[in-house]
Write a structure and sequence with these properties.
Layout (H helix, E strand, L loop, with lengths): L1 H14 L9 H17 L14 H5 L4 H7 L8 H23 L9 H6 L10 H14 L2
Helix pairs in contact: 1-2, 2-7, 5-7
Length: 143
């Protein structure tokens, strides 16, 4: 998994060789860490390194969308990560509910938030909003 993300980053950098374009390494490494963390946490990941400007929008995802939109209305995509995090939490919770209804055990191996929603933590600690905030903290920690 890690080698695949490293290969993506390396190929992005190699593709810029000789073009005289600037690669913001802070953006590239933030996107890199986001991709690694995303593969650990989510079923469906968004590959930040596949963005045309190597994760330029990724940096701003840690800032509240209302604040960004107040300053820069054209920055609609900055709130995308918050929405993505909540969608992934909802998907993990739905998978748990489906397995509970069938009387089967959900496989949570390798996916952090599937493990959390399948844990014996109090339901109040596993709310969609709370877990989405935790997801933002975890991914933000990689930047």
């Amino acid at each position: 998994m890690l080698a695949e993300v490293v290969e993506t980053l390396t190929s992005k950098i190699e593709a810029q060789k000789g073009t005289k374009s600037i690669i913001r390494l802070d953006h590239a490494f933030s996107a890199f860490s986001g991709d690694v963390i995303g593969r650990i946490c989510w079923e469906d990941k968004k590959d930040l390194l596949d963005e045309p400007d190597i994760g330029r929008d990724w940096i701003a995802n840690a800032i509240p969308p209302k604040l960004i939109l107040g300053v820069l209305p054209s920055a609609q995509s900055f709130g995308e990560y918050s929405k993505l995090a909540k969608e992934q939490i909802i998907r993990a919770k739905q998978a748990k509910l489906d397995h509970d209804q069938k009387g089967t055990q959900m496989d949570s191996e390798g996916l952090l938030f599937r493990h959390i929603v399948n844990s014996d933590m109090p339901e109040s600690e596993r709310s969609e909003n709370r877990l989405a905030q935790e997801a933002q903290v975890i991914v933000g920690g990689g930047t």
